[in-house]
Amino acid sequence: MTGKPGGLFITIEGPEGAGKTTQARLLHDRLRRSFDVLYTREPGGTAIGELIRRLLLDERHREMSPQTEMLLFAASRAQFVAEIVEPALRGGRIVLSERYLDASLAYQGYARGLGLEVVRAVNAAATRGIMPDLTVLLDIEPAVGMERARRAEGKEGRSGHGDRMEQEGLAFFVRVREGFLTIASEERDRVRLVDGNRPQQVVHEEIVTLVEGFLSVRGWRASSSS
Q1: Nearest Cα residue to 156 out of 148, 168, 164
Q2: Is 77 in contact with 127 (CB distance < 8 Å)?
Q3: CB 135 within 8 A of CB 10
Q4: pTM for the whole thing?
């Protein structure tokens, strides 16, 4: 379901290196001037989820099976929905999250080859039927994204190598991108595609225009104190 009573759920998605964290933070800084916005991330966002995140991204766990990976993401998501998303939406807040179910569909469903039906079935209980009202999908050339992700500082993986997911080969990230683009083409009412290959500020302004237009259509107006 979408359009939950009270709040709105917005996600930022995209392959590795697309600029999700940067754009999510910039968007949060812009929106919080006028709205009550909760910025979070997934996997993670909760104490349990952050532990699962470290397990998933630790390069020492290269032997992890696709099924285990899928189930761990779903476990983190279940806690995320119960502890973060549902209470915030009931409280009338905007939830802005880096990643959600679309990532599992692209990574485990498409790139790992587990199939969309399996991923959706596993995540049905985890999400409790809650889907984003709006998803901003940052698209980027796989080779460019890989290079950006592996160079990034302050993340789970070693600089120059990346985390367990970022160490996959180019063919894997080509499949991830194909998965995301397929989702975007099939869910045009929810997913908005944004070219992440452009300069950071250009991408940010496009996202702001897109999101503010969406909020206006949904009847959200800036607070008088902004």
Answers
A1: 164
A2: yes
A3: yes
A4: 0.92
